[in-house]
Amino acid sequence: MKLELAQWEVMFALTNYIKEEYGMECDLTDGIDEASIQYQEQIVPPKKYKNGRLIKNEHGYPVLDYKNATYEDRIISWGETDSIAVYLTSIP
Questions:
Q1: So what's the pLDDT on residue 92?
Q2: Rounded distance between C-alpha atoms, residue 42 and residue 44, angstroms
Q3: Are residues 48 and 55 in contact, defined by beta-carbon separation less than 8 angstroms?
Q4: Which residue from 3, 62, 70, 89 has the least number of CB within 10 angstroms?
Q5: Where are the beta strands (DSSP E) in 7-82?
Q6: For position 22, what pLDDT does the model report?
Q7: Rounded to whole angstroms, how far apart are CA atoms 44 and 75?
Q8: How far is CA 20 from CA 30, 42, 84, in A?
Q9: Each residue's pLDDT tens digit in the chain (92 positions)?
Q10: pLDDT value of residue 3
Q11: Is the pTM for the entire model greater than 0.85?
Q12: Do residues 76 and 36 make contact, with C-beta atoms less than 8 angstroms apart?
């Protein structure tokens, strides 16, 4: 099942959450054309030999080194026409 929420629906839900949880009045749906989303992206480097050459698998693609993965902060703009899709596999 696909659950899709438009940007204004998420902003409305956040407004209600802030009001109920923190007791603060704010209106995130009024006057905001674009919001920003900050997230972390995993950066996985390729494995290398001691001499610096890439280690490749049997198909010729570089092997990734998940043990040395790092995370970088990224920011994207989230406009009025964007949405979030959540895919639910089973509902009890």
A1: 67
A2: 6
A3: yes
A4: 89
A5: 34-43, 70-79
A6: 94
A7: 19
A8: 19, 34, 23
A9: 899 999 889 888 999 999 999 999 988 877 667 788 999 999 999 999 999 999 999 999 999 999 999 999 999 998 888 999 999 887 66
A10: 92
A11: no
A12: yes
Q: Give the amino acid at 52.
A: G
At 19, the amino acid letter reads: K
CA 8 to chain centroid, in Å, comes to 18
Instruction: Report which residue type is found at 40.
Output: Q
Rounded-to-integer distance, Cα 23 and Cα 49, Å:
57
What token pair was written down for 88?
A: 């639910």
> Which segments within 1-92 are labelled E, that is strand?
2-6, 34-43, 70-79, 83-87
Rg (CA), the chain: 21
Question: H-helix or E-strand containing 9?
Answer: helix 7-22
